[in-house]
Amino acid sequence: MPFTDRARIHVEGGHGGGGCLSFRREKYGGRGGRVFVVADEQEKDLTRFRHAVHHKAQAGGNGEGRVKRGRAGDDLEIAVPPGTRVLRDGEVIARLDHHGDRVQVARGGDGGVGNRAFRSSTHQAPRETVPGTPGEEAWVSLELRMDVDAALVGLPNTGKSALLVALTGAGAVVAPYAYSTREPALGPLEDDEGHLFTIIDLPGLSEDGTPRDHSYLEQCERARIILHCVDVDDPEPAEDRIARVRVGLAPYLGEDAEEWVIATHADPADPPAWARFAVEIELGEGIDALREALAQALGGTAAR
Ligand SMILES: Nc1nc2c(ncn2[C@@H]2O[C@H](COP(=O)(O)OP(=O)(O)OP(=O)(O)O)[C@@H](O)[C@H]2O)c(=O)[nH]1
Ligand SMILES: [Mg+2]
Fold it and tell me: Where are the domains of the chain?
């Protein structure tokens, strides 16, 4: 199943219950249920919303019999993975980063009013009732920003996926041609104290440094370390390629993200001046040093 980080859903509060025609008591209809979007750590991505587009809360009960007020409709909770942004009309209305975070996206309709409410000294047996009102309706966009610690980025075919596999053992597509990665891949990294960190590999940028059509680059937003892969074998000056990637990436980075430039196809004993680390991935050289530095940096800065 392809990974999905965006969805658009239609939400609707429950209709308010009708007022009741009765001559014994006031009979209000119950309010309709509300719709909430709730972060739930059981959810991993937004794939299920491809087929689950319409979400409507329960209607309020009609005012009836002995009860003064119809029962309120049940609220509807839509579970999404932590890290989901909720948007209405293009504006982010909530960032549900932690399990249990919630936001209301549709009000329930108001309950109607029963005839008894219209009684007065001159109007002893009113027969008018007011029906309940419809619940609020809206289209809501969901965008997932995964809780990743580090992200692999760079020009095509520079070894990002190969580095993910070497660092974490994750299964990712590694291939000797550009644009082989089409879906994000995640890999785990563990530090000495057993803390687990997540590294993500993305389809990312085109050769000219602009984001690809479905780049998933938004997934860099929560990463604290950006692993920027640069192939030393490319004849174009590395500084030019690095600058191009930085421009393309800038809109997607979190405020405190650190960038580590990693030279690939390189000799770790002789790193180029522009790189923080050098690796030869096929030979497995420089990988352990990079993994340790990453674990230390992520563990050391982990404020959780
Ligand atoms: N010898 C050697 N080969 C490497 C190194 N890094 C990557 N490769 C090879 O280069 C090719 C591309 O690697 P990928 O990991 O698929 O590159 P990528 O950046 O993920 O590419 P896209 O996802 O297509 O943008 C593969 O054949 C890798 O085996 C390296 O450091 N040394
Ligand atoms: Mg790749």
Answer: 6-144, 150-301
206 ligand 1 Cβ < 6 A: no
CATH number of the 6-144 domain: 2.70.210.12
Mean pLDDT over residues 7-11, rounded? 97
| Centroid of ligand 1 to alpha carbon of 238 (angstroms) | 17
- pLDDT-derived band at 227, boundaries 50, 70, 90: very high
- List, in order, residues 6 or more apart from 284 with CB less than 8 Å away: 166
**Residue-level pLDDT at 71:** 87
The residue to mutate among 164, 167, 180, having the most atoms of ligand 1 within 8 angstroms of its beta carbon, is: 180
What is residue 66's predicted lDDT score, i.e. its pLDDT? 61
pTM for the whole thing? 0.79
CA of 179, closest atom in ligand 1: 24
